[in-house]
Amino acid sequence: MYKKESRENKRLIWVAFICSLVFLFIAFRFLISELPDKNNIVEIHGILKSDIKVKKRGRGSRVLVIKLENYPKINFIIQSVSLGETYSQELMDENKARDSIKIFIENREYRRKIAKTEKIPFPENIFHPDKISIVEIKNSKSNYLLLKDYNKAHLKNNYLGIAFFGILGLLMILLGIKGKQYFKG
Fold first, then answer.
1. 156: phi > 0 → left, psi -120 to 50 → alpha, else beta; which?
2. What are the CA-CA distances from residue 4 to residues 60, 128, 181 (Å)?
3. Domain residues of the chain, as ranges?
4. Alpha-carbon distance 34 to 38, whole Å?
5. What is the distance between the alpha carbons of residues 62 and 56, in angstroms, rounded to a whole number?
6. What angle, rounded to 10 degrees, do the helices at 147-184 and 2-32 form?
7. Is 135 helix (H, G, I), strand (E, B) or coil?
């Protein structure tokens, strides 16, 4: 009986250490993620295929979905992270089906999903092969989302991700260490 409990305790300690590595890896990914700049975005001119739609996701988050006639299989989206920096109501009110619009996306997204010169990496190739995030959007009259505002929102999100997953990782390491000390002594 004691050996079985000891084995379970060792497993829990190892699970804590493995979880800590996963959380710290996720925090590191937030740390090294690069934000786009004027040198690594592509401008796409298009005609709106339909009106811009708001789609609701879980836990109250929303995304704007934009369909262009010249890219019918692609959903261009403004994600909830940068939606707060977007003049979304004006964008929906001032741009209807058949209107012309300029969208800016990252070069990487363009190469992977439009030009198809690069493979889409896992798991994005399974979950989001037809979605491209918009980093800037405008028409001939107005700017609705600027690159600097997109970057400001994503930088704040990155800091929150680093803090959240970093703290979780450190807590799991401490839990593993304390568990090891407790069950050793």
1. alpha
2. 44, 44, 18
3. 2-32+161-184, 38-145
4. 13
5. 4
6. 160
7. coil
> Tokens 């692609």 — which residue?
74
The model's pLDDT over 132-169, given as tens digits with 9 standing for 90+, comes to: 999 999 998 999 999 999 999 999 999 999 999 999 99
Q: Dump pLDDT digits (tens) for 35-61.
A: 999 999 999 999 999 999 998 877 778
Predicted TM-score (pTM) of this structure: 0.83
CA distance 169 to 68: 42
Compute the distance between CA of residue 152 and CA of residue 146 in angstroms, rounded to an integer. 10
Distance separating alpha carbons of residues 79 and 63, to the nearest angstrom: 5
118-129 in b/e form (b: 16+ CB < 10 A) is eebeeeeeeeee
Domain 38-145 homologous superfamily, CATH:
Nucleic acid-binding proteins (2.40.50.140)
Residue written as token pair 């979605």? 131
Q: Sheet containing 136-138: give its strands across.
A: 41-47, 100-106, 136-138, 143-145
Sort strands 143-145 and 136-138 into parallel, antiparallel or unpaired: antiparallel
For 175, residues 6+ apart whose C-beta sits below 8 A from its C-beta are 16, 20
Structure tokens at 142: 């107005």
